[in-house]
Amino acid sequence: MRLFLLVALTMAAFAANSLLNRAGIVQAGADALGFAVVRLLSGAGMLGLLVLLRPRTVQWLQPSRAFGVASLLLYLFGFSLAYQALDAGAGALVLFGMVQVTMFLGALVLREVIPVTRWLGVGVAMTGLCWLLWPGEGAQLSSGAAGMMALAGVGWGVYSLIGRGAKDPLGDTAANFVLAVPFGMVALIWADWHMSTPALVLAITSGAVTSGLGYALWYALLPQLGAGRAAVAQLSVPVLAILGGALLLAEWPDFEFLLATGIVLLGVALAAKRG
């Protein structure tokens, strides 16, 4: 039960990231690159402060660190750039579909045993997710934005795979964020910087709380989940994000929405079973 509750809390933080990014870029009018940089800086600041307040030393130069930094940057910037043009549903479908593919391929490469129930759960969850996020008349996707979100999904999938071996979740997350800052700052060369106060607050909240603290918790949970279950658990994030958007916008889901949501959660439950 404790593991379930912590995973649920982490998925809620991931869903909040989608809402905060969409609100900052679309509603508050922030520049996408600038929003991503502020998110990165605030996450690095929060995590850096936390590791300074503890006695344990951070291992800055582990063999996998370069891949962790690169995959984090790919996710952060791909995510923000894509949400300039993609609507919430289509963006979440592309992102977590690519996360799913990346992590299951990683599980196969790493020779993790994936039982039949997990494959079945993946199929059921993806069916419900496609039904939930793909309207009957179809969604018009910008190929460029969809490509950026797909790259973000690959980045997050790789980042999660690396986290499965984390022995110091907080230290590893802090190191990834801090070492990513110099590379992330380069993006400001191309940024059309304009950041209102509401956008700045949203970016800082996304970086310090739902990204920095959320990702540290995710790294702590990954060794207990394995690549297969971790991938499927994240399929619940688009559902949570859309529910959050509906509540914030007072757009209540209809019966079809609730039914599709139930199918996604059934798939997650099947895939989470052991054996």
From TrEMBL:
Signal peptide range: 1-15
Main location, first listed in the record: membrane
Keywords, comma-separated and alphabetical: Membrane, Signal, Transmembrane, Transmembrane helix
A Pfam family per the record: EamA
InterPro entries documented for this protein: AA-Vitamin_Transporters, EamA_dom, EmrE-like
Domain EamA: 148-271
Domain of life from the UniProt record: Bacteria
Entry membrane topology: Multi-pass membrane protein
SUPFAM superfamilies: Multidrug resistance efflux transporter EmrE
Keyword Translocase: no
Cellular localisation: Membrane
GO cellular component terms, semicolon-separated: membrane
Membrane-spanning ranges: 32-53, 65-83, 89-109, 116-134, 140-162, 174-193, 199-218, 230-249, 255-272
Protein known as: Carboxylate/amino acid/amine transporter
Native organism taxonomy: Bacteria, Pseudomonadati, Pseudomonadota, Alphaproteobacteria, Rhodobacterales
